Amino acid sequence: MTGTIFTNFDYHLKNEKKQILLLMDNCPSHCVPSNLDNIKMLFFPPNSTGLIQPVDLGIIKTFKTHFTRHKLMYLTDLLEQQNISVYSSYKKLTLKDTVIFVKMAWEDVSEKTIANCFGILSNPFKKNHVVEVQDIAVEKTDIFDPLEVEEFLNFEYSENDTFQDVEDIENIKNEEEVEAEVESNEVESNDSIDK
């Protein structure tokens, strides 16, 4: 962060009559002005990255999980409302949408999550549980097979992809069930002929 960023941030905090404690790592590129009134800086001790990493991972991973959930919900709504391809729905995302997702995701990170992450520093043997993106996707999209969720999240979309109706998906499943039943009957028939 540059001195200008710190000064602007301090100015806005002064107008809002707020004071903050800013915890920072010892990155040499941080240029901290000495005349900050509303920001108190506290630098982590040298070589403490390994100790604070769980804090970093816990909070950031939770934030990213919420961000991804909001983005997926938005894309799903676009697909359902406009009946467009997945590729087209991704192309409709704007910078404004992304900023909105960031705001919503940060609001979803609870104080308890942040406190739990800092609790790790006081008790290094405590293991923090972070909700995985897949867990939230399963909960929000009613996809019950984790493999299907992972395929959905990591799928490479193209312009030719279209959103299938639930009926189409059910028909495909019904066809697969019929094929499996026919194969099962054929195996049983062959077994009875062999006897």
From TrEMBL:
Residues 175-195 are annotated as: Disordered. Residues 9-118 form the DDE-1 domain. GO terms for cellular component: nucleus. Transmembrane segments: none annotated. One of its GO terms (molecular function) is DNA binding. Residues 176-195 have a biased composition (Acidic residues). This is Tigger transposable element-derived protein 6-like. It comes from Octopus sinensis.
